[in-house]
């Protein structure tokens, strides 16, 4: 009897192993097709840029991709580009992290407790309609032209988007899930930590993805007015001296960094998708 049962289990184990192998191969093929599509998309973008700059708008103010690539190579070789990119990304990382942490905490509280939601709602709905660019002058007056004003502006443009998305996620948690947890003896703290917070993760990731784009836009604007290093500074000083290739280098780098940041969020969402649900 035991030998027969063991012989029956062996084909089942082999079938499961083959199924897992086929699934991994299919996933690998999907990833390859996805990145191949990305490659074709980028080639198309630069091809259209070449056609526009050469035939549609032939102007010294709209350089083709090759002169921009040459200038980018020179800036990389001299180390100037890395200096500008690193300082901008440091400012974005610090402000975005602080704004996201505060936004997640406030959003969870607003979505979970009616009193907290009613208390913070006037502040959120008032300040989120005041763009961060409008506060650049105020930030410089209050905090000077150092790092504090730039980080403050990024926090400001990040926090409200994360708050709104996190609160929406907390409010969207199924009542049946909360009731089921309470029927099993969960306390309010356990319901909050093990039901509401995990269910809100896809909304949090989506809010952070949207806020990241605002952070890029804000740091460029802030660096244009008061900074010696940064991609915004490159754009501003290049405009003054008509260095059009430098402007396009900064634009290409900003777009590339934004694409990489978006992919990181998507991959993080997919990795956590099995437990919390995917925001990709």
Keywords:
single chain, 280 residues, mainly alpha, 11 helices
Explain the overall architecture.
With 280 residues, the protein is mostly helical. Helices cover 85% and strands 0% of the residues. The protein has eleven helices and no strands. The protein has helices at 2-56, 65-78, 80-112, 114-127, 136-143, 147-171, 175-183, 188-225, 231-240, 244-271, 273-276. The longest helix has 55 residues, at 2-56. The protein is flat, with a radius of gyration of 25 Å. The two termini are 50 Å apart. The mean pLDDT is 85.
C-alpha Rg (nearest Å):
25 Å
Low-confidence stretches: none
Quick one: how many beta strands?
A: 0
Biggest beta sheet summary: none
What best-fitting shape do the alpha-carbon axes yield?
flat
Order of helices and strands: HHHHHHHHHHH
Helix residue percentage: over 70%
How would you briefly describe this protein structure?
The protein has 280 residues and is mainly alpha-helical. The chain has helices spanning 2-56, 65-78, 80-112, 114-127, 136-143, 147-171, 175-183, 188-225, 231-240, 244-271, 273-276.
List the helices and strands and how they pair.
Layout: H1 2-56, H2 65-78, H3 80-112, H4 114-127, H5 136-143, H6 147-171, H7 175-183, H8 188-225, H9 231-240, H10 244-271, H11 273-276
Helix pairs in contact: 2-10, 3-4, 3-6, 3-8, 3-9, 5-6, 6-8, 7-8, 8-9, 8-10, 9-10
């Amino acid at each position: 009897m035991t030998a027969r049962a063991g012989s029956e289990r062996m084909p089942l184990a082999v079938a499961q192993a083959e199924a897992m192998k086929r699934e991994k191969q299919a996933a690998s093929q999907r990833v390859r097709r996805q990145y191949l599509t990305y490659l074709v998309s980028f080639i198309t973008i630069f091809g259209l840029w070449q056609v526009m700059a050469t035939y549609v708008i032939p102007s010294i103010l709209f350089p083709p991709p090759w002169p921009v690539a040459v200038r980018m190579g020179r800036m990389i070789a001299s180390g100037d580009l890395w200096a500008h990119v690193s300082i901008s990304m440091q400012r974005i990382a610090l402000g975005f992290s602080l704004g996201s942490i505060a936004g997640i905490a406030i959003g969870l509280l607003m979505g979970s407790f009616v009193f907290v939601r009613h208390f913070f709602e006037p502040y959120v709905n008032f300040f989120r309609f005041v763009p961060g660019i409008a506060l650049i002058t105020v930030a410089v007056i209050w905090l000077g032209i150092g790092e504090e004003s730039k980080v403050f502006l990024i926090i400001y443009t990040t926090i409200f988007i994360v708050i709104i998305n996190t609160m929406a996620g907390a409010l969207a948690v199924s009542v049946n899930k909360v009731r089921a947890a309470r029927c099993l003896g969960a306390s309010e703290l356990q319901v909050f930590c093990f039901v509401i917070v995990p269910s809100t993760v896809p909304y949090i990731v989506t809010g952070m993805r949207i806020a990241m784009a605002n952070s890029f836009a804000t740091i460029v604007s802030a660096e244009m007015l008061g900074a010696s290093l940064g991609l915004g500074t490159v754009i501003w000083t290049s405009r003054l001296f008509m260095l059009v290739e430098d402007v396009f280098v900064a634009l290409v780098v900003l777009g590339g960094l934004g694409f990489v940041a978006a992919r990181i969020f998507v991959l993080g969402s997919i990795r956590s998708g099995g437990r919390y649900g995917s925001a990709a």
